[in-house]
Amino acid sequence: MKLTIKTALSTLAIVLSAVTSASSQTGVSLPSADDVVTKMLRADIERRSELAGYTALRRYVAVNQDRRAEMMVRVDCSPDGAKQFTIISEAGSGSIRKHAFSKMLSEETMASHRESRDGSRITPANYTFNMLGQDTLDTGPAYVLEILPRTANRYLIEGRIWVNAKDFSIIRVEGKPARDPSFWVHDVHFVHTYQRVGQFWFASSTQSTSEIRLFGRSELTIENSAYELHPPATHIAEADSTARLVR
Fold it and tell me: Which residues form the signal peptide (predicted)?
């Protein structure tokens, strides 16, 4: 779910990231970073235990000096977090679609598997946290924390997170990779935002920019929409039981 942001970071090896800026408020009584992170992790465990999976639509748009490409895909996420992608439509540069979009989908599919997720989650095992202040977004008040990766892993980031002050969900992430994705890609920056669907927070958009050797500045936009939650397993079991009774 949201603590895993490989979606944004897997894309960094090709075209990425965005303009970062945030205003945090000072001079107010704030909880410690440890307190916020503890509540954030506890709330995330509770929400993930209730998530039965979802489907959504995702649109990719990549642009550099002389090329542009788009792709629309359907995302199917199972209860355990594993994702599958189905391409609905695509247009523009075949090179970008083949070498960028296809690579992103493949990397995110692999990264969504349980054995790969823990290494990139925003948790104390992977990051240290520092309280920076409080900010007010469209979604309401949020705590702003600096996150510093414990290792120079390309799938970890250095930047800031915004944690909703009411339900302790991560609702915004800004930063850069812990190290350049490759020799060809550098100066990467991104902004990753979330939207609320029921009681859950899912990826809303990613805006990213990077410098790619030989091609210059490149921009990538990812937009997510049309989320549909899968019914809880208990509801499915009840429906099956009812169906058997009426046969």
Answer: 1-24
